[in-house]
Design goal:
The structure holds 2 protein chains of 2 kinds. Chain A has one domain (10-176). Helices cover 66% and strands 9% of the residues of chain A. Chain A has 6 helices and 3 strands; from the N terminus they run αββαβαααα. Chain A has helices at residues 3-48, 74-77, 84-87, 89-98, 105-135, 145-178; strands at residues 54-59, 62-67, 78-82. A 3-stranded antiparallel β-sheet of chain A has the order 1-2-3. The model of chain A is unreliable at 180-194 (pLDDT under 50). Chain B is elongated. Chain B has a 3-stranded antiparallel β-sheet, covered by helices on one side. By secondary structure, chain B is mainly α. Chain B has one domain (4-163). Chain B has helices at 4-29, 32-56, 84-96, 101-132, 137-163, and strands at residues 61-64, 67-70, 73-76. Chain B has 5 helices and 3 strands; from the N terminus they run ααβββααα. The mean pLDDT of chain B is 89. Helices cover 72% and strands 7% of the residues of chain B. In chain B, helix 1 packs antiparallel against helix 3, helix 3 (84-96) runs antiparallel to helix 4 (101-132) and helix 4 (101-132) runs antiparallel to helix 5 (137-163). The chains are: A mainly alpha, B mainly alpha. Chains A and B meet through helix 1, helix 4 and helix 6 of A and helix 3 and helix 5 of B.
């Protein structure tokens, strides 16, 4: 077995262990995080909606979109989606930061704090864009360029970006905060020596 | 600060190629032609092979297009569930990383087979979870397996850079 393979297997084992340990904690935190997300997005919704027609509510493991329009049908008043869709990557981020061995806890905490703050901003931005998508997913509602951008952005986040962000943040933050340890070059030997 | 730019140019180039590849692959995979000729056949193949395996594992399964049914539970395998987007992310990372074409080809074969293979296990396990512990299905589907698959892609990519890439510039 190659030495690097052993290191990778250790990383994988630690990742899975931390993931499993953090999962129950994440379930406890999720309702509060959903409420925090909904409140933050509600603060910013007036920037994208004039007049204001929707409000978000964090309810258990769901984020609900409540229509303020009148008159409304029962189906239109309340729509919701599972909060996992937005922020399942939080637990991935935590496991990625905590898994690598031999890193100072102070640096680890710093990386984790920055990473979670950036992910929170990404979640808020995604919900701000995604609320239009979840609110009216019918294709005919998205004929305008802005509408098509909502659809593209939401689908891109769900299919690719939600999984990619934690990995990119992990690589970038470890490079910036910790630095990448350089491989030790073999010391140059004088000519003729064996 | 300006002096640093030439030093970091190779790194900037890697990032630009990586993001350009991701956007291109994503846009390409979303076209109707790719959906018709790649995504849907791949999803149907996943459903067929998974159905076969589930029957061998004594869980009576039937397949209809991309819909996989076992007793008391059914699931549709769509393009996101095939792992093709994770393969696209992985492929973008392989293409962006400085290496020779032959090494990139090895990386592609290694990564695509590992990701699709793991995704196959994911589909099988999700059908079992859906059949026997349906309350855990959403958690396993959206939370656990998505994270495990992307982490596996990262591991395979690191392994490829360490094991197969011998280009002097990296």
């Amino acid at each position: 077995m190659l030495p690097n393979t052993k290191a990778l297997l250790t990383l994988a084992g630690r990742f899975l262990l931390i993931f499993v340990l953090a999962l129950p904690l994440w379930f406890l935190i999720t309702p509060a995080y959903n409420r925090l997300l909904a409140s933050s997005v509600n603060l910013l919704l007036p920037l994208s909606e004039e007049p204001r027609v929707t409000t978000l509510v964090g309810w258990k493991h769901f984020v609900l979109i409540v229509s303020l329009e009148t008159p409304v049908t029962d189906e239109k008043r309340l729509q919701g989606f599972n909060g996992y869709l937005t922020h399942f990557n939080l637990i991935l981020m935590v496991a990625l930061v905590l898994a690598p061995p031999q890193i100072e806890w102070r640096r680890r905490c710093k990386i984790l704090g920055i990473a979670l703050a950036i992910l929170f901003l990404i979640h808020v931005l995604y919900l701000l864009i995604g609320v239009k998508f979840f609110q009216q997913p019918e294709l005919e509602a998205f004929q305008s360029p802005a509408g098509r951008l909502y659809v593209w952005g939401t689908n891109f986040y769900l299919s690719v970006a939600s999984q990619l962000f934690p990995v990119l943040l992990w690589m970038a933050l470890f490079r910036m905060v910790s630095g990448i340890p350089r491989r030790q070059e073999p010391e140059s030997q004088p000519p003729g020596s064996s | 600060m300006w002096r640093l730019i030439p030093q970091r140019l190779p790194l900037v180039k890697v990032y630009v190629i990586f993001f350009a590849c991701i956007l291109s692959f994503y846009t390409l995979l979303r076209t109707s032609i790719m959906r018709e000729y790649v995504s849907e056949p791949l999803a149907a193949a996943f459903a067929s092979v998974s159905g076969l395996m589930l029957n061998l594992l004594s869980l009576k399964a039937t397949v209809s297009g991309t819909v996989l049914r076992v007793e008391g539970f059914a699931a549709q395998i769509d393009d996101v569930c095939t792992g093709i987007f994770v393969v696209a992310i992985y492929l973008s990372a392989v293409l962006a990383y400085p290496s020779r074409p032959k090494e990139k080809l090895k990386g592609l074969l290694l990564g695509a087979s590992a990701i699709l293979g793991l995704n196959f296990i994911r589909v099988l396990s999700l059908m079992y979870i859906g059949r026997y512990i349906p309350a855990l299905f959403e958690t396993a589907h959206l939370l656990v397996w998505q994270s495990v698959i992307i982490f596996s892609a990262l591991l395979v990519w690191i392994y490829w850079t360490e094991r197969f890439v011998g280009a002097p510039q990296h």
